[in-house]
């Protein structure tokens, strides 16, 4: 019998009373591996109420105890690393190594949360005026909520609830309904680490459940990662309801290739950054901008991409797995067809990709377009598949201008041997995360994930110091004590008690 994924409410794994069930399918075979319930309105309210009640005691918990919880949690995540990765690979289709990376990058954020004592320190100035001192504290907000996507079911939940909870909040997680088994395993281990009941709640569902969280009066902050359309809805609805919102949305990430770059390094990195994870990541390189003579490397890039073969999660030779569902595959195939019809040259076409061991999988092979112009849909839109478009530019200035005119600003990179070119690029480019001879510049957790423009809606970003600012409020105290009130004489000890 197919398992029904439970909810986590009040510290207990419970079966939802909902009869609205969504099948969870293996992307490589279409076999149903579980079913996930759309939580009822009453269940969502219970989850928020439980988190609100738990907040009353958790906010008073010493910061050192919060840090110790995170230390125990990161140890459990490491002990169960490969088990989590196996669950993740089976429900997402990712290769096992890719799944292991997903889990590990989440663990790194939990390790960062272990430093919460130093991260949450306030500021103090003595004698801001005569015998008057001023100091600030960071205090938690209350019940925070997170809405996470399918493509990183371990890493992105771990971006959110460990940092929020370490800051003294409680948390309601609504993971993707397409791969809920990984987040539930993360929640089980969090309980095993000794998290008090009610600290973390997990509810499942779709737009209806998300909207209930967005309108709920007891939730002051919402974190989201997903598509542009949903990100805009989350941001507008959340802020309209007077909530603090961080919404990470879409991307169209460019890699600029200068003629002085190391050719083989460029090709190797560009292949992995474009088709790795099937292109289903917001930091994937989907546009290669060849400057000047570097355009001559495109045929060799095509040959390298043609060597990458998708396959099953436990196939050590597979370069990446299937797309998450048939609708995602059809969307990518539609873009490939639109590119051809618009006049782009398809040097490598993955439309007819077949994996013999899994003929029903959502397979799309590596795809490469040249002769692409900015008005084409394959350039304008985020394809979210193993599709790379190549554009040529005569100068670095032209490449910078092209990228800055694109509405997205998540990540970009430049490959060059010139420090001056790299300096000019990192300074002038209007993108939040820049790699220099690094294809996918995702920062480690002591920095913050800093997408710009249409890739992000909000003020404070994920993890790093900005996450602490997002999940806390600052209280400033101005204090004055009068020396005439100092007790003195034989009864001083009594007076000071």
UniProtKB/TrEMBL annotation:
CDD domains to which the protein is assigned, alphabetical: ALDH_F6_MMSDH
Entry GO MF terms: methylmalonate-semialdehyde dehydrogenase (acylating, NAD) activity
EC code(s) of this entry: 1.2.1.27
Enzyme class of the recorded protein, top EC level: oxidoreductase
Pfam family, one: Aldedh
Alphabetized UniProt keyword annotations: NAD, Oxidoreductase
Entry's Gene Ontology BP terms: L-valine catabolic process; thymine catabolic process
Residues in Aldehyde dehydrogenase domain copies: 15-477
InterPro entries: Ald_DH/histidinol_DH (IPR016161), Ald_DH_C (IPR016163), Ald_DH_N (IPR016162), Aldehyde_DH_dom (IPR015590), MeMal-semiAld_DH (IPR010061)
Family, similarity comment: Belongs to the aldehyde dehydrogenase family.
Protein name: methylmalonate-semialdehyde dehydrogenase (CoA acylating)
Organism: Marinobacterium nitratireducens
């Amino acid at each position: 019998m197919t398992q029904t994924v439970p909810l986590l409410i009040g510290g207990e794994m419970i079966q939802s009373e909902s009869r609205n069930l969504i099948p969870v399918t293996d992307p490589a075979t279409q076999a149903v591996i579980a079913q996930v319930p759309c939580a009822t309105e009453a269940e969502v309210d219970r989850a928020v109420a439980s988190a609100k009640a738990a907040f009353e005691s958790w906010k008073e918990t010493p910061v050192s105890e919060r840090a110790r919880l995170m230390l125990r949690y990161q140890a459990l995540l490491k002990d169960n690393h490969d088990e989590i990765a196996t669950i993740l690979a089976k429900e997402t289709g990712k290769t096992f190594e890719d799944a292991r990376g997903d889990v590990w990058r989440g663990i790194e954020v939990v390790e960062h949360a272990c430093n919460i004592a130093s991260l949450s320190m306030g500021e103090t100035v003595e004698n801001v005026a005569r015998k008057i001192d001023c100091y600030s504290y960071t205090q938690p907000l209350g019940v925070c909520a997170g809405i996470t996507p399918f493509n990183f079911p371990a890493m992105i939940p771990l971006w959110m609830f460990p940092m929020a909870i370490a800051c003294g909040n409680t948390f309601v997680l609504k993971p993707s309904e397409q791969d809920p088994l990984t987040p539930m395993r993360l929640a089980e281990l969090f309980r095993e680490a000794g998290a008090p009941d009610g600290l973390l709640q997990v509810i499942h569902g779709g737009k209806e459940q998300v909207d209930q969280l967005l309108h709920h009066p007891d939730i002051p902050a919402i974190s989201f990662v997903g598509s542009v359309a949903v990100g805009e809805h989350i941001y507008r609805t959340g802020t309209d309801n007077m909530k603090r919102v961080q919404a990470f949305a879409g991307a169209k990430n460019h890699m600029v290739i200068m003629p002085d770059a190391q050719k083989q390094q460029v090709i190797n990195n560009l292949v992995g950054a474009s088709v790795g994870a099937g292109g289903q990541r917001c930091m994937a390189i989907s546009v290669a901008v060849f400057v000047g003579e570097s355009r001559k490397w495109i045929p060799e890039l095509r040959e390298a991409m043609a060597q990458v073969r998708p396959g099953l999660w436990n196939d050590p030779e597979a370069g990446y797995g299937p797309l998450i569902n048939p609708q995602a595959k059809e969307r990518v195939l539609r873009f490939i067809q639109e590119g051809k019809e618009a006049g782009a040259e398809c040097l490598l076409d993955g439309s007819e990709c077949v994996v013999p061991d899994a003929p029903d999988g959502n397979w799309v092979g590596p795809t490469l377009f040249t002769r692409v112009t900015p008005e084409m849909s394959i350039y304008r839109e985020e394809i979210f598949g193993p599709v790379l478009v190549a554009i040529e530019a005569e100068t670095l200035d032209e490449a910078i201008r092209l990228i800055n005119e694109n509405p997205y600003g998540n990540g970009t990179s430049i490959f060059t041997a010139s420090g001056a070119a790299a300096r000019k690029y990192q300074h002038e480019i209007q993108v939040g995360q820049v790699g220099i001879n690094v294809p996918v510049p995702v920062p480690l957790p002591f920095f913050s994930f800093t997408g710009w423009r249409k890739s992000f809606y909000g003020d404070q970003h994920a993890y790093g110091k900005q996450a602490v600012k997002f999940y806390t409020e600052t209280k400033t105290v101005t204090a004055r004590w009068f020396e005439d009130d100092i007790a003195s004489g034989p009864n001083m000890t009594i007076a000071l008690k």
